[in-house]
Design goal:
156 residues, mainly beta, Lipocalin, globular, DUF6314 domain-containing protein, DUF6314
C-alpha cells in the first residue's frame, strides 16, 4: 500500500440527493427474458421533473424484440427524499423501493406476489449510472439492465 496523495480520479462522486437527478437523461436498456428465451433492447429518454415533494420520473422508450415490430412504452414513478434515502413510489403513490444515498451500489427488493423484484443501482461512474433488475417468479424470469447518461445541457 502506498501513501501517495489522492488524485481527483481516486475520489468517488456519488449523487447526494434528488436535485442531482433532475433533468433529462438518455437511456439504453438490455433485456434477457429467460422465461421465453429471448433478448431485447430499448432506447429512450428519462425526464426527472419537480413534482410536489420531490421528482417525477417519466420514461419513454422504443423496445425491440426479435420478430416483432418496435414497441413504444412509458412508465412513471415518484421519487421522494427521506432521511438518507430516495423513496421510490409508483405513480399512484404506492410504495415501490428505496435507494440508499451515499452508497456506490445500493440494492433493494420489491415483492409483488408471486414475483420478486431485486434491483441494483450502480453510481460508481456518476453521472453515468446503471440500474439492473432481476425478476423471478412463476410467470417471470428476466434480467433488465439500463444505462443512463445525462443529456447535454443547453449552452453547456
Amino acid at each position: 500500500m502506498t501513501n501517495r496523495p489522492l488524485s481527483p480520479a481516486d475520489i468517488l462522486t456519488l449523487p447526494e440527493g434528488l436535485s442531482d437527478f433532475e433533468g433529462g437523461w438518455r437511456l439504453s436498456r438490455k433485456i434477457h427474458d429467460r422465461h421465453v428465451g429471448q433478448f431485447g433492447h430499448a432506447e429512450g429518454r428519462l425526464e426527472f421533473s419537480p413534482d410536489g415533494d420531490g421528482l417525477r420520473y417519466d420514461e419513454s422508450v422504443t423496445m425491440h424484440l426479435p420478430g416483432q415490430p418496435p414497441l413504444s412504452g412509458t412508465r412513471a414513478y415518484l421519487w421522494r427524499a427521506m432521511d438518507g434515502v430516495i423513496d421510490v413510489r409508483f405513480d399512484t403513490g404506492a410504495p415501490f423501493h428505496q435507494i440508499m444515498l451515499g452508497e456506490p451500489e445500493p440494492e433493494a427488493t420489491h415483492h409483488c406476489a408471486p414475483d420478486l423484484y431485486r434491483v441494483s443501482y450502480d453510481f460508481a461512474d456518476w453521472p453515468v449510472w446503471t440500474v439492473t433488475w432481476e425478476v423471478s417468479g412463476p410467470r417471470k424470469d428476466y434480467r433488465m439492465e439500463t444505462l443512463f447518461v445525462r443529456e447535454k445541457l443547453r449552452g453547456g
